[in-house]
Amino acid sequence: ADDYVEFLSKKVLPEVARKKLADRVDLYVESGFFAVQHLKQWFKSAQEFGLYSVAHVDQLSQGGGTGEALRAGAVSVDHAVFASEKDIEALSQSPTTAVLLPTSDFYLKMAYPKARQMIDQGVRVALATDFNPGTSPTQDLSLVGVLARLEMKMSLAEVLAAYTFGAAAALKLEKSHGALISGFEADFCTLEGSWRDLFYSVGLHPVASTWRAGRKLNSRLV
Predict the structure, then answer these.
(1) What is the pTM (predicted TM-score) of this model?
(2) 81, 58 in Cβ contact below 8 A?
(3) Does position 60 have pLDDT exceeding 90, yes or no?
């Protein structure tokens, strides 16, 4: 891991930045993978090249990744299942978004993040699938929303906020996306029924039309 992070920092990152192939870096901090010292080195290198940072941390154990990512200025911390009380307090006082990934926890048959505590303390939360072949082989946003409501005790309004403004903040787009307000990009969808039907039935996608930048993309998504 030491050699690999060094290689990425010295050889790969300069080329990525020069060719403008990315705007952020990520790192998975967990026992048996990358360690806190790797996060420090990787984030520092990214900052030198003008890239922002996010981190997947404290998914399987409490390893200090959340706290270190916050100190390093991470835009988001993903998973954060085992974030400590101190971490959650620090999150609530920071601009960092906690990206919660409950389908990964579902497939691994493990605990879910403390979403209720985070939100009650003022942490900004986003939701995502964590789509990957190893621990979360799904792209079903409805399943994520259902798990958020059932297992993480989030209200429907909180799930919607996590999928819109919270998600935009996790991508550093909160000044232009994620809300239907004047001056923002007009990205939205219309529904076949009530918004109250969302994230109740697994696999249900009652989208009637999808709009991007004020332009209708399609008449229906199934």
Answers:
(1) 0.93
(2) yes
(3) yes
Backbone angles phi, psi at 161, to 5 degrees: -65, -35
Average pLDDT, the chain: 95
- Helix or strand holding residue 45 (H, E): helix 36-48
Return the residue matching tokens 């390893």. 63
What contacts 11, CB < 8 A, 6 or more positions away? none
- The residue whose two tokens read 């919660």 is 100
Indicate the residue type of 138: T
Task: Classify the C-alpha dihedral 107-112-115-116 as positive or negative.
Answer: positive
Strand partners of residue 211: 188, 216
Contacts of 222 (CB under 8 A, 6+ apart): 205
93-83-6 Cα angle (round to 5): 95
Give the integer Cα–Cα distance in Å for 143 and 203: 7
Tell me the C-alpha distance between 65 and 116, whole Å. Answer: 21
Beta carbons of 8 and 25 less than 8 angstroms apart:
no
